């Protein structure tokens, strides 16, 4: 059974930057070199619009911040597009020979609070630019509500994505929330994806209404996935599953190995895990209370 040792809070916005008044949502780590890990995240401005930035941390002490972005590396989409209210990093993968960003684009709505689909951006200068004003994981007849938040693996020249898909909307304490599961899709080029895929992680009980932010690692013995679990009776917590092929998953949430703290920034909830290996250590970056309002922290696998 795995056990994560919490190293502590890494970073939260000071409010100094116009685009990062609060939140450090959905930490997305990337190993730059043996000394540096870059954590991408989304912050909110005064009007609650979200833009992505980053902080660099020391690989040997991931609670030590080395530098932070002064400006967002991708701005909001044009008014009326799928990402005109927020851009949230999800993962990175090579596409057409370039290191590209898969991101969540979200848009405010009237009858439900928001809708979310997946965009793709490629490097340009010190930032990124969209490859299209339209999402690459868009609505389909089988999935008309939400398709977002992928994690990507490339195997045998094909792309595999595990992503969040809503089956509809539900009411929790008289507020609408998406009822979502984790599905699988494939692509030959990382840009055109299958219209729908099998459910990999569904609800474990009637109390659950959401499993989100899948993060998949392929180890020698199996695929491992960490994700967030949302239920009516309890705040977000982190779940864990294993699979022999990336399609058939066995939930082992009791082996996630990380729980809420007794007090502090992650005492209310744990969510949005992302796992990387650096210098022989396996690290998990994650959000705590209020989905990232208190910043993000890190734990190491013991």
Model description:
This protein has 302 residues and is an all-beta fold. The protein has no helices and 20 strands. The protein has strands at residues 4-11, 22-33, 36-44, 50-58, 61-68, 86-95, 98-108, 114-124, 127-130, 147-155, 158-172, 175-187, 199-201, 208-218, 223-231, 237-243, 250-251, 271-278, 281-287, 296-301. A four-stranded antiparallel β-sheet has the order 1-20-19-18, with no helix packed on it. The model has no long low-confidence stretch (mean pLDDT 97).
Task: Note the main attributes of this structure.
302 residues; mainly beta; four-stranded antiparallel β-sheet; 20 strands
- Beta-strand portion reads over 45%
Number of helices: 0
Low-confidence stretches: none
Order of helices and strands: EEEEEEEEEEEEEEEEEEEE
Distance between the termini: 10 Å
Using the CA coordinates, give the radius of gyration: 18 Å
User: Please, what is the average pLDDT?
Assistant: 97
**Biggest sheet statistics:** 4 strands, antiparallel
Shape: globular
- As laid out across the biggest beta sheet, the strand order is 1-20-19-18
Q: How helical, in percent, are the residues?
A: under 10%
How many β-strand runs? 20
Q: In terms of structural class, how would the helical and strand content be classed?
A: mainly beta
């Amino acid at each position: 059974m795995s056990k994560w040792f919490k190293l502590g809070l890494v970073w939260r916005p000071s409010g100094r930057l116009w685009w990062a008044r609060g939140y450090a949502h959905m930490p997305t780590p990337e190993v730059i070199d043996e000394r540096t890990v870059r954590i991408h995240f989304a912050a909110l401005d005064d009007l609650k619009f979200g833009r992505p930035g980053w902080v660099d941390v020391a690989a040997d002490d991931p609670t030590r911040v080395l530098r932070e972005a002064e400006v967002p590396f991708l701005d909001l989409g044009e008014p009326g597009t799928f990402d005109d209210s927020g851009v949230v990093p999800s993962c990175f993968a090579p596409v057409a020979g370039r290191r590209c960003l898969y991101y969540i684009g979200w848009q405010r709505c009237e009858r439900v609070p928001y809708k979310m689909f997946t965009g793709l951006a490629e490097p340009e200068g010190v930032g990124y630019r969209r490859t299209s004003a339209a999402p690459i994981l868009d609505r389909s007849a089988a999935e008309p509500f939400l398709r977002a938040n992928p994690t990507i693996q490339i195997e045998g020249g094909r792309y595999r994505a595990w992503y969040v898909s809503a089956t509809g909307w539900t009411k929790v304490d008289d507020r609408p929330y998406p009822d979502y599961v984790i599905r699988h899709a494939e692509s030959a080029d990382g840009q055109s994806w299958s219209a729908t895929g099998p459910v990999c992680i569904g609800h474990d009980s009637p109390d659950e209404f959401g499993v989100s932010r899948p993060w998949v690692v392929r180890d020698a013995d199996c695929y491992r996935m960490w994700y967030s679990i949302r239920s009516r009776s309890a705040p977000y917590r982190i779940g864990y599953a294993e699979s022999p092929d990336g399609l058939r998953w066995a939930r082992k949430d009791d082996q996630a190995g990380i729980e809420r703290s007794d007090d502090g920034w992650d005492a209310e909830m744990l969510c949005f895990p992302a796992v990387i290996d650096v210098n022989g250590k396996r690290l998990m970056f994650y959000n705590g209370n209020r989905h990232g309002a208190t910043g993000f922290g890190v734990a190491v696998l013991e």
